[in-house]
Specification:
The protein contains twelve helices and twelve strands. The protein is of the alpha/beta class. It has two domains: 209 residues, Isopropylmalate Dehydrogenase; 135 residues, Isopropylmalate Dehydrogenase. A ten-stranded mixed beta sheet has the order 2-1-3-12-11-4-5-10-8-9, sandwiched between helices. It is globular and about 55 Å long.
Length: 362
């Protein structure tokens, strides 16, 4: 296979973890006979410094014409002035719009070997395997905004078609799993949530009768994620709720650095990134956790390129690296022997290349 995968290193630790993802993709290409072109482009604060905009047109065009996009992270204190007219995060929002990615997939699967890093008791982690499907292009983040001296407003708007398409994607995913879909809203207060609940109920009843649908208010979902995380299978929700809940759920695994994400469109390139931020406090120190970016590369292989065997090879290699004790400081919980970003990445690459015995891939 030949594919073009655009790399957007971004800011903070973004270049460090994006490099790990790129090296993983290159190793997969070597091992499985694929040709991956990996051009780099600017986004976020790095783009503002050079071009004055968070998403240069050349970056947007390159991404639109690619097969997939791998992003590091954007933002940092250098560009954090709330009054600034251009902010790094605008680049990410604009990129999502440019690629028409409407659904963000965030798998939450704790590794039992990292249970000590999780704030939850180990018995609560047994059987946890959640996939969040977050709507990405609607809601309060993209609604009309207004501010004057005494007030401000952010409009939350959803259309039936926006809800239908993300619910259908979540249902298709649920059909491959336990066939249990939890739809999260705030239908007791918000009109958009009432539309969300009505639309979700109709789509599931008419098109996916084999799926067990559960509606849950967002505050209850936040509570149950900590009390009973194993009760969830696929969770679908709107933009802001999904942003908050997935960050909450990320602590279940022990570290934000472990979690990948995939942002998908109806057609066209997907956008893949670890869910952590730019972590400017550790940028340049060589201690960032690369596993979230590497696992994002696995999602890229699976969802954009249709390379399931290769995706599983990456996931097995990450599991093998963790089993071998290659833990960055966020996972080692301050213990002596934490490894660097480069060492963790090198361990994954050795496993991919067969230099360390690893569980056979089915």
């Amino acid at each position: 296979m030949k594919a073009t995968i655009v790399l957007l290193p971004g800011d903070g630790i973004g270049p460090e973890v994006c490099r790990a993802g790129a090296m993983t993709l290159a190793a997969i290409g070597e091992q499985f006979g694929h040709v991956f072109e990996l051009p780099e482009a600017l986004i976020g604060g790095a783009a503002i410094d050079v071009t004055g905009t968070a998403l240069p047109s050349v970056t947007a065009d390159l991404c639109r014409n690619a097969d997939a996009v791998l992003l590091g992270a954007v933002g940092g204190p250098k560009w954090s002035d709330p009054a600034a007219s251009v902010r790094p995060e605008q680049g990410l929002l604009e990129l999502r719009q440019a690629l028409s990615v409407f659904a963000n997939l965030r798998p939450i699967v704790p590794d039992c070997r990292l249970s000590a890093a999780s704030p939850l008791r180990s018995e609560l982690l047994v059987g946890v395997d959640i996939c969040f499907v977050r709507e990405l292009t609607g809601g309060i983040y993209f609604g009309a905004k207004q501010r004057d001296r005494d007030s401000a407003s952010d409009v939350c708007t959803y259309t039936v078609s926006e809800i239908e398409r993300v619910v259908r994607l979540a249902c298709e995913l649920a059909l491959t799993r336990k066939r249990h879909l939890t739809s999260v809203d705030k239908a007791n207060v918000l009109e958009t949530s009432r539309l969300w609940r009505e639309t979700t109920s109709r789509v599931v009843a008419e098109e996916y009768p084999a799926i067990r649908l559960e509606h849950m208010l967002v505050d209850a979902a936040a509570m149950h994620l900590i009390q009973q995380p194993a009760r969830f299978d696929v969770v679908v929700t709107e933009n802001m709720f999904g942003d908050i809940l997935t960050d909450e759920a990320s602590v279940i695994t022990g570290s934000l650095g472990m979690l990948p994400s995939a942002s998908l469109s109806a057609a066209g390139p997907g956008l893949y990134e670890p869910i952590h931020g730019s972590a400017p406090d550790i940028a340049g120190k060589g201690i960032a956790n690369p596993y979230g970016a590497i696992l994002s590369a696995a999602l890229l292989l699976r969802h954009s390129l249709g390379l399931e065997r290769e995706a599983r090879a990456v996931e097995h290699a990450v599991a093998g690296a963790i089993d071998a004790g290659l833990l960055t400081p966020d996972l080692a919980a301050g213990a002596v022997g934490a490894v660097s970003t480069a060492d963790a990445t090198a361990g994954v690459l050795r496993l991919l290349r067969g230099e360390i015995a690893v569980q056979a891939i089915a």
